[in-house]
Amino acid sequence: MGNLRITRATVAIAGLLALGGCAADVATTTEQPTMYLSMANGGARLDPQAAASMISLYRQNNGLGAVAVDPELMKLAEQQSQAMASRNKLDHDVKGPLAKRLNASGYPATVAVENVSAGYHTMAEAFSGWRDSPPHKANMLKNGVTNLGIAATYAPNTKYKVFWTLILASSEKR
User: What is the pTM of this model?
Assistant: First the structure.
């Protein structure tokens, strides 16, 4: 009888531990992916690795190579998004043409393209907007690019609220 109680207690504890493990799994899988995080608030931080993964997967599905986050391109994208936000203006050339900005930073681009947009609150929305626009789609599917920089700047007192910049480039010799 004593062994039966010990066996039942052991089974009950094992069952509770298993259920606890399931509960923990549910809690971790319900976290929102960063591509759906709204950038339309002051504390939001864009996840550049998630953006690179999303764009790389899109490129790979279209027969192209992946892209990696580049710190210098990240700075340039941030500067462009901040410049657009500070002027409340969606414009590629608000800080000068892309080639001029790349040269001024010392980035030795052999190929480079840029997407800008505004008004999208999440990375998923910005990506969908670019994918559905032929010129932006062509940039995301540009052959030969290997690196990216991406930024979203929140400007609450502007028409669009969030300004996006995506720079895709390569510094590799062709």
Answer: 0.81
